[in-house]
Amino acid sequence: MKIIGVTGGSGVGKTLVLRMLEQCGLFAIDADTVYHTLLERDRNLQNELITRFPGIETEDGIDRKRLGNIVFTDAQALEDLNHITHKHVMKKLRALLKDAALRGARAAAVDAAALFESGFDRECDFTVGITARQSLRVSRVLSRDGLDEAYVTTRIKAQKNDDFYRTHCTFLIENNGDLDSLRENVARILEKTKILEDVRKH
User: What is the model's pTM?
Assistant: First the structure.
């Protein structure tokens, strides 16, 4: 099974690109969804996070905003969070991909902001980096998460800059908010990778 890894910072439109790839016939997995599901249900992950970041535990599980406030202003804390979460999330991703392959999927798209940090890029045939202007990113995150602007701006500034994705990704897409342009870029990538040929053969 061929795999396209989709990556980029908060608010660039990774999920939108993932949905477009899914509509083209690829099996799609959102690593953020996997992470949040594990955060709610996986006691091993919860215990590791609570041990490393005291004070984030609530009656309902983990206070995600409090955790975010810690890690987005402390480089070592962010590295520690990544180390803990990547092993859990990537293990689940691999299991989901294996199951999809056994059920006949020929190509998959994985949306993972931490594609390179986790080392999952080495398991991808191609990687797509998505970028966008900071103002667009902030407005997108605010609209979907209901967070305050100062927190969102701090979160985005703590993430990798566009040059990282230009250097490390097979393809780069700038999401300027034009859906038609975004679809054209996704179609161009699928044409270049010839992944749809595998999908259509089965």
Answer: 0.83
